[in-house]
Amino acid sequence: MSTFVHVPASRITGDLEAIGQRPGADSGDPQLGRLRFDTDGTVRAGVWESRPGGWPVEEREDTETCYILSGRAVITDGATGETFEISAVDVIDSIGL
Prior knowledge:
Elements: E1 17-21, E2 27-28, E3 31-38, E4 44-50, E5 53-54, E6 63-67, E7 72-76, E8 83-87, E9 91-95
Antiparallel strand pairs: 1-3, 2-5, 3-4, 6-9, 7-8
């Protein structure tokens, strides 16, 4: 099996599905939208958006890498209190939060 996953842009089309407010929201009204595209079952991926708001990120075993297409956010590391301001073309990775 290849160690690379390639999803052509032609497979990433369509409108984002509205999925409602982010569970656990603690500020604002973060309404979410997504467009999922799965590979051969190896990687679950998609395009995701949120309206302004905040929520805690709970510990989990998996990782998530995000490439920011537009907008901006402030991420606070709950363990250290360090904040990260992210915006378009930034990448953020949550390694086993």
